[in-house]
Amino acid sequence: MKKHLILLLFFISVSSSVFAGNIHYLTVDGIVNPVMSEFIVKGIQDAVKENAEAVVIQLDTPGGLDLSMRDIVKAILSSDVPIIVYVAPAGSRAASAGVFITYAAHVAAMAPGTNIGSAHPVAMGGEKMDETMMKKVENDAVAYIKGIAAKRHRNAEWAEKAVRKSENITAEEALKLKVIDLIAQDKKTLFEAIDGRKVEMISGEKVLKTAKAEVKEVEMGLRYRILNAITNPNVAYILMMIGLIGLYFELSNPGLILPGVVGAICLVLAFYAFQTLSVNYAGLLLIGLAALFFIAEIKVTSYGLLTVAGIIALTIGSLMLFESPLPFMRLSLWVVLPTVVTITALFLGAMYYGLKIRHKKPVSGMEGLIDEIGVANTDIANEGKVFIDGEYWDAWSDEQIKEGEKVKVLDVKGLKLKVVRI
Predict the structure, then answer these.
(1) Structural domains in the chain, sorted by start
(2) What are the residue numbers of the active site?
(3) What global pTM score does this model have?
(4) Containing H/E element for 71?
(5) Interhelix angle for 34-49 vs 66-77, to 10°?
(6) Which range is most confident: 17-26, 344-353, 399-408?
(7) Where in 312-390 does DSSP place strands (E)?
(8) What is the side-by-side strand order in the sheet with 215-218?
């Protein structure tokens, strides 16, 4: 009987270790946007399907969009798998939207040398909010984070200060104020520290078993990385410029196909990014107007005035394109200036060569014979023959030209050339 009991306990322990869930480790950094939101939400859903022991979100963010942050927070609060938010590595931060995400976690941890705070809401989309509206948004954010703090038993008083006064604290201060649960030097230390910790789940209390759990690294795939990259204001701006250039060359040279295809793709990607950014549509219209000015310069003789107007509109429009109090949501001047100079040079170069080709002497047909040099094959007066470009032509002249003398074509009448002696 004892042997059977020992064997039973042995198999139970073995089966529990074999079927124990692993830890899904998600690394996210950058702006909180729809791409990050989709990645985290999907990561949590996959962890639930695989019956994971826990999900760790290694976070480093300056903040981002309110809607994306709320999607992440809702996924964390309703998760059937414990969520650990770990602000790391050293030098990272959980600012603005990152504060809400950290507060929502079942376990909140930070690495030494990190900071958290500055969660005051800001107006997005370039619009200006009056004092009343700003107060409403602020109160909404305070109520939201206080509700999260109450659910996770965190410091609601400091959370309100982070929203109203943009307070920011270090990892050590956050631990002292009970904003987070622990400080962990690295991943291994984190798993050892939370092993055996009890967390409140929707289904009830759960004890974390993380010390010896297998870690599954979940990284952003190529699709997420591309979408995340183009939501950067500087990348979105460059994509739009490439799109405008592509369409310009396609419209001015129909049938090239490649510039039109590349331009259309870049514009679609740019407008995808614009839905996540604070776009000022006056700036967007100025950039479009600049493109029209450059195109019109080819058709209208403005002595360079349209070109100057296009350069001014492009520069002002670029500087106005993204308006946000957050520096990471604005265009860099070191991106705008080189791009404006490059775009202007390309448009001016295209116009120069277009005008040069327009005024170029024809190289075929009857018009191509004007000013050609040949030799009189016979004496020429009212009529005669000349040899030009390997061909014999009937010719006439207002002066006497002797056989063998060099002549130049002045005019073409039907198949007869008017020539003059050189």
Answers:
(1) 2-221 (3.90.226.10), 232-358 (no CATH), 366-421 (2.40.50.140)
(2) 96, 136
(3) 0.72
(4) helix 66-77
(5) 10
(6) 399-408
(7) 373-376, 384-388
(8) 182-183, 107-110, 83-87, 54-60, 23-29, 215-218
